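Bumping my old thread because nobody answered last time. Still need a sequence for this structure:
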């Protein structure tokens, strides 16, 4: 996976280009091949014997010897199967919250916490600008090893601890996890300039909010200092979006209520665990491209942190990989499950499809590697998607109307616009706005005075052209000096005092932004 010199060069080159780099930090587990685990599994009395979650098995009734017995608790992993793995060398079980070869670290051992915090310090000293915290809600487990309660829910929703017929009461979102977020924030705040912490946390929103800290802080009275927490949490409710204005209207309204400023929601529509949304958005390729432009407009103009999964900016599609020969360990684990059952429960078991190499150009290997049919040390883990000769960065750079150039235009606008980066968000409903249209206003912070910068965003998710006069709350964005700042289609326009939006199109009107 490269050398330390490669990592240092990467950090340097990213900074040289005026960007920041966030590393993926796996706090909760290691591989079974890690030196720590190799030592830990050898015996019960070695220096790292307590670095992982080990437990005696439950003995069968009347048994005089353990010999493994049954799993210590009923705890299931995130994938829905038994999370305990038996180790004959210790005649004990170790817990894996995800896959069987990823044993969970024991954060109740102070040495483990110090070792992981040492890793954080190491990378911060190298110049890393922050961390994505993997499965951060499942670091600590119940120290009394109580069984999780039963649940009728089979699937694993993003906004609940229920799943796989268990309420993960004793394996997820324990109070110690929230305290760990505070400690980690206090550690990273010692570095300047400010670093960022973004957590992967599943659970109900009132639980997620705790990881973001508290404005009031501990104690009572006006001197109570705020309690720090993570800067942001990945919010996954948009992952299974439907291309309807009503869907996004509902989610954005919910996010505004639950994460008001200074909190900032995250706008996540795709990631490494879900099918690429360009492949499930509906319609033929041309229709999907039109819809993708609307999604880009929404994600980069609504209030929140836009999280773009690599390849979305050029419309990369999901690869079509059979389960036979799958490299994804989840697919291998569930190879026995009929595909129709997986589809019925909305399970995406072979994630190879969304993890194909980035398509940089139309040459060998799509510019990601040397390419070619021969397997070499430079060959990628997964093959390149076969459409790379048409869908790639180099080709889209040359096309002013490409999806990539729309992303670049919107990101440039966002960089110049205080309204888009940190401004107020007002959803505009009724007052002549068709139900198929998502319409909102963004205004730059102004400390109560009239804002010098205001924007109106309108996106038609419907199948018919929408023609309407902007609502009464929109005039600040439609002052005489307002102009179209960006649009997804040349046909999206202002005609007189009305907006004209063809199907799957949108635009931004605004004033006060430097070109």
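Sorry it took so long. Here it is:
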């Amino acid at each position: 996976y490269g050398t330390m010199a490669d990592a240092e060069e990467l950090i340097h080159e990213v900074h040289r280009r005026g960007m920041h780099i966030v590393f993926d930090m796996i706090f909760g587990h290691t591989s079974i091949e890690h030196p720590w685990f190799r030592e830990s599994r050898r015996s019960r009395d070695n220096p790292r014997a307590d670095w992982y979650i080990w437990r005696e098995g439950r003995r069968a009734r009347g048994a005089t010897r353990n010999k493994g017995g049954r799993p210590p608790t009923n705890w299931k992993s995130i994938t829905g199967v038994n999370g305990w793995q038996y180790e004959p060398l210790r005649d004990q079980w170790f817990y894996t919250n995800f896959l069987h070869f990823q044993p969970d670290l024991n954060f109740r051992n102070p040495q483990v916490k110090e070792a992981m915090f040492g890793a954080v310090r190491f990378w911060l000293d190298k110049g890393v600008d922050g961390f994505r915290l993997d499965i951060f809600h499942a670091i600590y487990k119940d120290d009394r090893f109580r069984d999780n309660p039963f649940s009728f829910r089979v699937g694993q929703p993003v906004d609940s601890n229920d799943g796989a017929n268990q309420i993960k009461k004793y394996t997820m979102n324990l109070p110690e996890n929230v305290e760990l977020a505070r400690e980690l924030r206090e550690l990273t705040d010692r570095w300047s300039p400010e670093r960022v912490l973004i957590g992967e946390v599943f659970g109900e929103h009132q639980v997620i909010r705790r990881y973001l800290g508290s404005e009031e802080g501990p104690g009572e009275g006006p001197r109570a200092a705020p309690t720090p927490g993570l800067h942001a949490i990945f919010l996954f409710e948009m992952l299974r979006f439907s291309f309807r204005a009503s869907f996004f209207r509902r989610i954005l309204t919910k996010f505004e209520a639950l994460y008001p400023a200074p909190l900032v929601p995250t706008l996540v529509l795709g990631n490494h665990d879900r099918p690429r949304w360009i492949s499930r958005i509906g319609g033929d390729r041309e229709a999907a491209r039109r819809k993708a432009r609307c999604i880009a407009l929404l994600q980069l103009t609504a209030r929140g942190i836009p999280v773009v999964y690599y390849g979305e900016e050029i419309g990369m599609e999901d690869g079509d990989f059979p389960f036979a020969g799958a490299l994804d360990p989840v697919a291998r684990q569930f190879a026995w499950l009929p595909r129709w059952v997986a589809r019925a429960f909305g399970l995406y078991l072979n994630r190879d499809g969304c993890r194909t190499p980035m398509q940089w150009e139309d040459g060998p290997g799509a510019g990601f590697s040397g390419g070619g049919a021969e397997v070499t040390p430079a060959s990628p883990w997964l093959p390149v998607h076969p459409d790379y000769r048409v869908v790639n960065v180099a080709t889209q750079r040359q096309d002013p109307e490409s999806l990539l150039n729309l992303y670049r235009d919107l990101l440039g606008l966002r960089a110049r616009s205080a309204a888009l980066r940190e401004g107020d968000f007002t959803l505009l409903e009724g007052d002549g706005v068709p139900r198929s249209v998502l319409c909102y206003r963004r205004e730059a912070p102004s400390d109560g005075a009239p804002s010098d910068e205001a924007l109106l965003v309108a996106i038609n998710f419907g199948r018919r052209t929408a023609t309407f006069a902007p609502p009464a709350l929109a005039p600040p964005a439609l002052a005489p000096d307002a102009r179209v700042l960006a649009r997804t289609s040349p046909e999206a326009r202002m005609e007189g005092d009305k907006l004209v939006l063809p199907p799957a199109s949108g635009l931004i009107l605004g004033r006060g932004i430097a070109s």
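Residues 217-224 have pLDDT under 50 and may be disordered. Let me know if any region looks off to you.
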